[in-house]
Amino acid sequence: MSTDTPRSRSTDEQTPLRLLLSRFARPHSRGFTFGLVTLVLARIPQRIPALLIGVSLDALFLATQPYRLPLVPQGWIPETPTGQLWFTVFILAGAVLVESGLDWVSRWSYYHATVHTLHDIRTATYDSVVALEMSYFDDTQSGEVMSILNNDVNNIDNLSEGVYSGTNFVSQVLIALAFMLVLNWQLAIVAALIPVLMGVLSHIYARQIKQRYEAVRESVGQVNARLEDTIDGIATVKANTRENHELDRVTEQSRRYKATRWGAIRIRVVFSAITWFVGRGSEHVLLLIGGYWILVGPPPLMSGSLTPGTLLTFFMYTHSFLIPVQQLAVNVIDRIQNANASAKRVAGVLTNSAIEDDGDTDTLSITDGSVSYEDVTFTYPTAEEPTLRSIDLSVDDGDLVGIVGSTGAGKSTVLKLLFRFYDPDSGMIRIDGTDIGTVSRRSVREHIGYVSQDPFLFDGTIRSNIAYATPGADQETVERAARIAGAHEFVTSLDDGYDTEVGERGVKLSGGQRQRLAIARALLSDPEILVLDEATSHVDNETELQIQQSLEAIAGDRTTFVIAHRLSTVRDADAILVLDDGQIAERGTHEDLLDRDGLYADLWRVQVGDIDAVSDRFLGDVPPEEVAR
Ligand SMILES: Nc1ncnc2c1ncn2[C@@H]1O[C@H](COP(=O)(O)OP(=O)(O)OP(=O)(O)O)[C@@H](O)[C@H]1O
């Protein structure tokens, strides 16, 4: 877990944006503030050229006014027109220089703070995602999760951009208006109507676009989920020649995305046109009022004089803030609403209450590794009926327990509860007498080695995969684990041995090879309890025999659970549990169970090919494809 961005859920009802600002932007507030203050300061020199040009027009070219500048002592201004021209150009150059310098430090500071904030949001969101309970991943497609972690986090950049541009545009307008007020306050009030009008329009726009952007972000997630699904299953798609079917499904999602996106763009285009028209029209009204004032005299409700130079300055100011005001009304609102929709999805993860180990600080300490289930009943969050009912079992430390039963009987689920991937509805699971529901999940998992049905290898070398849970392990220890798992021989036959790159998800290895590496990985950390879930399902008969023979070595003196479809794998187990429809139907050693002549005996007969001896009851219960397995 990252230390600089602690995983903490907000308890109060914050809006997504506020949550992100208070949690992630605040630590970088100095960079943001400095960036915004210098941005605003840069707008002052930006407004000087229009003023100077107006004054020069009146004083130098029309010669109707003396050369005078607000706040500049008259003694500083040269007396000759040529001197005044040089003075004008000198100040213009100085203004541009100061503006560029301030803009440079402003961007540097602001964007530096932005990339750091986004980095913190990204890592904290990832941290929160991996901390979520398994049920979140059961309900959410991985493409959707990726879309939040990637697209939505990146999209929050729009918020930073929006705030920066918004501050830029607002300060451009306000500072221009301040200059205008000094020059001619009456005309300045007319000019101020333009941003006010735009403000009203942008308020309407913001309300219209909000929901549309939320729909867009949602459909981006759905498109990603669809794409990821088909790319993950590309071999199945090709083998079943379902490329066209998948294309149709992707096209359908993409069509939905296109429709939501177009809905947002349409509104944006319409508002762009309206604001542009209103802005331009207002500018022309200002020109009309100013021109009338110069040619005829002050219009109604106005008094005093107006020079052509001042009107030119006004015209340049209003013209220069037309684009910012229009951008503010549409683009900035657009960016902020777009980012807001993403912030909502990111905040949904950050504030998700289904966090593992939330508040569980006690840790499990294991001395022996005995395990007991006491009347455990469990229902998957998305299921209606319990998957496990009244499971009772007691395993002494060091025992090897086989778990068998037909497909879907609940074998994997029994052991998922041991890892606290889920907690039981009722009943209790104890390890060495401690109720695992009272200690942190991490501490439980640290003591259990796990080889799943479909072991996952990470992109990297064989060595790094074996040492995944024990990164500091030396070569000798890695090799020892690989030998026990029956992997050393094939690894050393590869050109690069333990340095062989396995490819994404281990695609460059066979299923059996992946499984053996996963067993080596589980053994390396020398856990007190080991869970092998169908660890021999992908291996050939020869390898299975090897693993079966070495099962004793693999199990060592640790408590070991082996889920097996091939009953031969567990025939020497200290105890075999036979699961049927979420309940333990039978238990005992291989011989006990054969003597009992129940479900296990039938399963055994099927596996040794003695189909004629299988009981009618079993044939009635079990679907034909299961008999054939
Ligand atoms: N995440 C889940 N959400 C809802 N139901 C689930 C989930 N995982 C498994 N199930 C259901 O729970 C039941 C038991 O599944 P489980 O994987 O434990 O069976 P199993 O005995 O290990 O089967 P198999 O031998 O085929 O691996 C099945 O009906 C399955 O559909």
TrEMBL record:
Signal peptide: none annotated. One of its GO terms (molecular function) is ABC-type transporter activity. It is found in: Cell membrane. The keyword Transferase does not apply. It comes from the Archaea. CDD domains: ABC_6TM_exporter_like (cd18565). Pfam families: ABC_membrane, ABC_tran. This is ABC transporter ATP-binding protein/permease.
